[in-house]
Amino acid sequence: MRSRSGKKLTDRFISIDRNFPLEKFIPTAFLIFFLSVFVLSIITYHNIERYRRDLDRINHSNEVIKQIEEIKYKIVEMPLIRRGYSITGDKNYLMQFDYLINDLNSEMINLKKLTSENPKHQKIIISVDSLISENFSIINAAILDTVFFDSLSLKFSKRQIDATNNVQNNLSKIKEQANELKESEITILRSRNEEANRTNSTIQLFIIITGVFSFAVIGFSLYVSDILIKNKKRTDSLLLESYSELENRVNERTLELKESNEKLNDEITIRKKAEDILRESEQRFRLLADSAPVMIWISDKDKQYNYFNRAWLEFTGRVLEHESGNGWRLGIHPDDFKKYQEIFNTAFEKKTPFETEFRLRNANGEYIWLLDKGIPRYEGEEFAGYTGSCMDINEIKKNERFLKIQYDISKTLAESNSLEEASKNLLRNICSDIGWNFGILWLADDKNEYVKPDYFWSEDEIDTKLNSDLYNDSMKFSKGMDFTGTIFKEGKSMWTKDLSSAKSFKRLEGLSKDGWNSGLGIPISNGKETIAIFECFNKKNIEEKKDLIEVLESAGRQIGNFIERKKAEEKLRLAYLELEEKVKVRTNELANALEKLIKESEEKEIIQNKIKLFAHAVRSIRDSVFITDLNLNSIFVNEAFESTYGYYLSEIAGKEIPILSGNNISAALKEDIKERTLMRGWKGELMTQRKDGTSFYTYLSTSFIRNDEGEAISIAGICQDITEIKNAEEELRKTNSILVETQKELIYNEKLAALGRFSSGVAHEIRNPLANISSLAQLISKTSLDEKNKRRLNYIISNVEIANKIIKNLLSFATPGDLDYQEVNLGEMLSNVLENIEGKCDINAIKIIKDIPGDLSILYLDKLRFENAFMDFILNSIESMEEGGILTVNVKEDKVNKEIEIDISDTGIGISEDNLDKILEPFFTTKDDGVGLGMGLSYQTILLHKGKLKIESKVGRGTTIHIQLPVEIN
Prior knowledge:
The longest helix is centred in the first third of the chain and has 78 residues, at 154-231. A hairpin with a 5-residue loop joins strand 14 and strand 15. The protein is built from 26 helices and 23 strands.
């Protein structure tokens, strides 16, 4: 087939040669080829120039986008510098602020120059420049407020809040407009990239065409030369000359191709520079990660960790080669490994962010609690693994542990009905909360001369029994005697991590032989002297922890006050029982005396003198004595009766005895007294009246008098004025009520004190990491990121602000600031609050019923705090009515007591009795979100204004909040 095709081609060529001379055809053909190559070269050159212009335009767009990102970063940095100055008062922040403004002005001028050819961009830039100027004015005014106003005043706080809100609103607008400007420039950049790609494709196409065309020319020339050599030897010289000319042209074309190749090499160089820039960006990231205050790690898509920053390696004390892959997992605490593995694998399969806590061994061999957060990362659209960071939360865990100790102690004291019950629960709670195995409670005697064991606790019941047998009532320690006596004398805590080395304390040596290694003793004081001692022991050698001792000593003082209060209550109870017993004995004595008198009065005439003697005795008795017939008509009353009730015997003889004829004695009661007296006697309390109409309590004891035949012939009674006893009982009830309220206030104050210590720790330990996180996020935002990562950075920054707000509320609850008193119309305030929530009520099908008089007295109070308190109460009511209901707000003024009463009622789900007493406590909440400070802050606002708050609720029927506010506050 090939030979036949070659033969046909040769025949055609010979035919052409015969019909058309090759001498004319070859020069014409090569001229045409040369012109074609020349045209292709010119077109390629123009396309290369066009591609270079496209690259310049792309670089210009990239410069505009970079300039926009720089401006956005500096704009966001403005309020941060202002906030830093407001918090620390450091004037370096003012210098940074001035430098930032100068840099920002320069950046805006450069941006205007770069976008001078785009009117749309110029319009947006002018708007952004205006908002930046407005923010500068607001922030500058806020800084001046910091200089001229007290940072703790409410006016300063309100101005700062308004400034922050205005700045944030402007930042949002600037961000929107900057994003619009950026999106527009990105659109232009994409268009320019597409145009450059098309130009590049055209260049490549023309280069390929030129090359193919040149090779075709060379091939055709060789073919023609071969034909001429074989068929026309006579034209050898001419062919050589033509070949020489063709070779020169090929060299020229080769030179042109070389130039084109050099241009392509330049383009390749540009791309390599871009790759170098990306590599440099990665190096900057690693440098930034190594400088970060948190530990950072990166894993690949095979779950293998391939990067750890310097903070991680310094923390673990290991090198990158040992940590890479799965080597780092060797440092996880064995108890936390399984949980971490499950959370990580689940998140990895779903490619979702995760967050968990675990303990990791540091370079010193200690296990430290870390908070690990991981987010998936992508290279383009392809999943590439995870990036994560770890933050040290060991101090937070420790503070939570101390807070739990305080809470358990306060809860035990509040719920215990007796000292014995409290002692058992406190010993168990303290030793178990600090993780120790065995404890002893020592109590001082009444004279505070020695201590002896009162109660034992151990994780093992066998240990409890053995130690109970060993430490009996016969074991006592006086002041300065052994370990316990030394704490009893000095009133200071003692800690030893090695009982075997405590040679001066014989009892500790015995405990060491039983396997105990560490000992801790905490004194319990009433403010003056040590009245009890808690001892805890552990089988491990545990180093002394001063912060734990401070918490336990504080708890010891709290427990001491509780013990003193319980002792006082016990003394009051015993005094009351003793008084009651004396009354009973005295009553029995008087009853026996009266019985003897009645018996002697029935004696024969031979003992009349004795009867007279006893009659005089009855008259002289200080308790009131009377005798009536069976119809309760008066026969005899003694002088004490006449003095007490104001009736003489001559006035009431033959008439109903006065103590049973008053308005307070019903006919049924009178008949009951009469019947019971004739059966076995009657005893009880009555409200009786004197002749002048005054009422008082009387203790009446009656019995009947028999004749010789044993028949009842009269009734005798003894009356005692028990007004003093009643007053004493009332005084006891009031005292007990005061003690109960004092106990609640003590517990509440202890909780606030613990919360204050915890809040200060949180503010110090959390705010610094939050500030670092915010600064790191702002720094990362300056780099080139896609929209998804930018949204994540914005989410981080917004969550940092939320965390700061929670810490601020926590500090406000623990240490409330001064009140900003002003005259307030309570009716208008409540009406405004209800108007603000009308839309929410309409959405939730809730009907509002309000009864607010228009003539309420003007109150003098902190308006902002009360608006927040009322809003919190009403929103809680709305949230309890998920399926709709009725919200009722009633207000009335008590002119007599000078009080305003406010009732906020709902028909919601109600509050259970178990939660009703806890609803105002800090950190208690039944919601899925929130931290449980809202109701506590509102309650605190009521108390600060000398008001009262009471909550009534029934499950399924709704809740009512009663508030009483004084009209005048001193």
